[in-house]
């Protein structure tokens, strides 16, 4: 907003006076804290991450020492070595985002449109949506691990009815990882959808009915297009953190070594094996892939103004 105000300062409205040098200096002073924040906490770490990803390894001393260089082969090596984890991260993120959208849209529609006449119930339902935020992300995920543990009655019941074989369990499977990702990020999908649907003018829906459109056609032609900004915002807020998540897929929670995602590899390389160039290269690849996918998605959905 500050950038927009600065770029349009004095020239956006016809009645506005031309921007003077004094106004420009004031705008720059107002922008200075934000620019410093971006430079210190985003641009500098980003350059450091990229520089680390290109480091070369020197073992002449008997111990691996990383020196600054331009080792592009680091990227080739991590893609060839961790291709399954890269694919799994985006595949899980896609499935969990779609599942969150399918669950959240009817919920947000009911709260934002149908429950308008009952403000107390609307507020209560919104509170229930954000209630999981009152509990730690780790505790929530660990609770699901206990509920679906190998000794739980749920797994026992599924085995007794033949849904699972006696040697099959839920924890450590892709299903549980996607389930945990979907559950933990549903509020990120529901709230943007609610803010869009809550402003939906129901007279458009009544006009559609007056023109003999059935509910399905009214939804496809009126409700869905008008709620598209909320859908785009919700999917971005859900997909991006899921792609980099490393909690749900961890063997300590709902996953196993067979379900590890890119975040798990980065965590292991940074904190356990200290292979900083490998971890940095994977982080840059993750960031670049997300940026590319988000750009294509936003342009395809016709909401370029979100970029």
TrEMBL record:
Residues passing through the membrane, by range: 26-51, 90-111, 123-143, 175-194, 222-244, 279-298
Species the sequence originates in: Rhodoluna lacicola
Subcellular location: Cell membrane
GO biological process, alphabetically ordered: transmembrane transport
Gene3D superfamilies: MetI-like
Chief subcellular location: membrane
Pfam (any one): BPD_transp_1
Keyword Zinc-finger: no
InterPro entries recorded: MetI-like (IPR000515), MetI-like_sf (IPR035906)
Keywords recorded for this protein, A-Z: Cell membrane, Membrane, Transmembrane, Transmembrane helix, Transport
CDD domains documented for this protein: TM_PBP2
UniProt domain ABC transmembrane type-1: residue ranges: 86-297
Name listed for the protein in its UniProt record: ABC-type spermidine/putrescine transport system, permease component I
Record-stated family: Belongs to the binding-protein-dependent transport system permease family. CysTW subfamily.
């Amino acid at each position: 907003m500050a950038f927009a105000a600065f770029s349009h300062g004095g020239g956006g409205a016809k009645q506005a006076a031309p921007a003077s040098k004094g106004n420009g200096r004031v705008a720059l002073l107002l922008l200075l804290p934000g620019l410093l924040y971006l430079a210190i906490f985003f641009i500098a770490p980003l350059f450091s991450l990229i520089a680390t990803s290109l480091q070369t390894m020197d073992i002449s001393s008997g111990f691996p020492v990383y020196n600054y260089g331009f080792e592009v082969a680091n990227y080739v090596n991590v893609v060839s070595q961790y291709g399954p984890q890269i694919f799994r991260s985006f595949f899980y993120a896609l499935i969990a985002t779609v599942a969150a959208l399918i669950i959240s849209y009817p919920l947000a529609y009911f709260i934002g449109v149908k429950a308008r006449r009952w403000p107390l119930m609307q507020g209560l339902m919104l509170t229930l949506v954000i209630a999981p935020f009152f509990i730690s992300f780790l505790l929530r995920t660990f609770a699901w691990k206990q509920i679906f543990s190998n000794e739980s009655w749920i797994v026992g019941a599924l085995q007794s009815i033949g849904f699972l074989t006696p040697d099959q369990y839920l924890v450590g499977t892709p299903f549980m990882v996607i389930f945990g990702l979907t559950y933990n990020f549903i509020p990120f999908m529901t709230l943007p959808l609610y803010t869009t649907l809550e402003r939906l003018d129901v007279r458009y829906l009544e006009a559609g009915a007056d023109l003999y459109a059935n509910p399905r056609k009214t939804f496809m032609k009126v409700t869905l297009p008008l709620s598209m900004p909320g859908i785009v915002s919700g999917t971005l807020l859900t997909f991006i953190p899921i792609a980099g998540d490393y909690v749900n897929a961890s063997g300590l929670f709902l996953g196993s070594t067979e379900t590890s995602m890119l975040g798990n590899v980065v965590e292991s390389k940074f904190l356990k094996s200290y292979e900083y160039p490998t971890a940095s290269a994977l982080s840059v690849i993750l960031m670049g892939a997300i940026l590319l996918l988000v750009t294509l998605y936003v342009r395809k959905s016709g909401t370029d103004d979100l970029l």
